[in-house]
Amino acid sequence: MSRQDINRSGEMEVFVSVVERGGFSAAAQVKRITPSAVSKLVARLEARLGARLVNRSTRKLQLTPEGCAFYERSIAILADIAEAERPASSGERASGRIRINTSGSFGNHVLAPLLPAFMALHPAVTLDIAHTDRVVDLMEERADVAIRTGPLKNSSLIARKLGATRKLIVASPDYLKRYGEPCTIADLSRHCRIGFSYARAVEGWPLREGGEMVTMPITPGVQVGDGEAMRHLAIAGAGLARLAAFTVRADLEAGRLIQVLEAANPGDMEEFYALYMGQGGPLPARVRALLDFLVSHVRL
Description:
Residues 12-64 form the HTH lysR-type domain. The protein is of the alpha/beta class.
């Protein structure tokens, strides 16, 4: 077969479907071809590349390191192709439902104020928004876009960075009046520190003391499952909380919360990403419109 006869993007689309659907049969259903055709295509691809991309077994399909690298490059290339073709397409209009999964803090303080402008730009789009701080499976939750923080762990997802924010330790004036303001990291041991009830990447508060980084363990008297609940508890005087700056900006300006231990703030940034499935084909116009809007308008 000559190089001109090879449909490289078509091969990539099928291979990406195999990875994301978890097998040849599932990919065949999506591509409307036979499982045998999918198997032969992947075999030809491996032969041409001179590398095994997947390890096949009766129970599951597992990517090799070469397969992982080829998958990552494939979804990037297919996205570039779709973007290149977009200006030439006619009659494409953002319409239909977008399911968004985000944290309550981001949803209330960042997303909600922006959405009226997005809806005015795209009146044919409807939004279905779910708030949760727990990590979700986009496919299981049937979400089009998830907004999360931290490093990308699932290689089947594509991330677009929305911005970054500092973390601040805050407390209510009433709480500080009753228990005093902590002036050193050691002072934190006598204060209630509100914690999260789910596993965090860092178990404790990273702080700086005398040029050294230390982690203050959290042994909270109260735990919560989301940042908004933590914010409300801090305002009510339940204890100290370490929260993203954008969630407490209005509270600081209004005097509902006061920042403490600024000298110990290490200046670490919490990065926010819009995550979506790499589907090996053109992104739906409605999802692309939302992603482009968020990248352009989110300010943390």
